Amino acid sequence: MDLEVLSIASETKAAVLLDDLAARKAARRLELPLLGTLGFLELAAKRKLLSLPEAISRLQQTNIRISEDLYNEVLLRNGFGK
């Protein structure tokens, strides 16, 4: 699936939403605009589409593998947290 996404994005120069490390590295090599889940949530919060702390809290209850440090960094960068 990631290969298909990268192929289409490469042809269209579209941004890609990826969290898989290998796929993100490939997207960087192809110089594609790249966004991960947390970046996507940040954009949605800036557009007032969701509450960033609430979205992150809900995301932490899933099986996605994102470090606690990265969650905290995103919250701090957006004016939330310690």
Description:
- There is one protein chain.
- The chain is mostly helical and 82 residues long.
- It has two domains: 2-35, no CATH class; 37-77, no CATH class.
- It is built from five helices and two strands, in the order H-E-H-E-H-H-H.
- The protein has helices at residues 2-12, 21-29, 37-46, 52-60, 68-77, and strands spanning 16-17, 34-35.
- Strands 1-2 form a two-stranded parallel ribbon.
- Strand 1, helix 2 (21-29) and strand 2 (34-35) form a beta-alpha-beta unit.
- The chain is elongated and about 40 Å long.
- The termini are far apart.
Could you provide a short overview of the structure?
This protein is mainly alpha-helical. It contains five helices and two strands, in the order αβαβααα.
Structural class: mainly alpha
Radius of gyration from CA coordinates: 14 Å
| Main sheet record | 2 strands, parallel
Q: How many beta strands in the DSSP annotation?
A: 2
Distance N terminus to C terminus? 38 Å
Mean pLDDT: 91
For the structure shown, list the relevant keywords:
about 80 residues; mainly alpha; 2 domains; two-stranded parallel ribbon; about 60% helix
Task: Detail the topology: elements first, then pairings.
Layout lengths: L1 H11 L3 E2 L3 H9 L4 E2 L1 H10 L5 H9 L7 H10 L5
Parallel strand pairs: 1-2
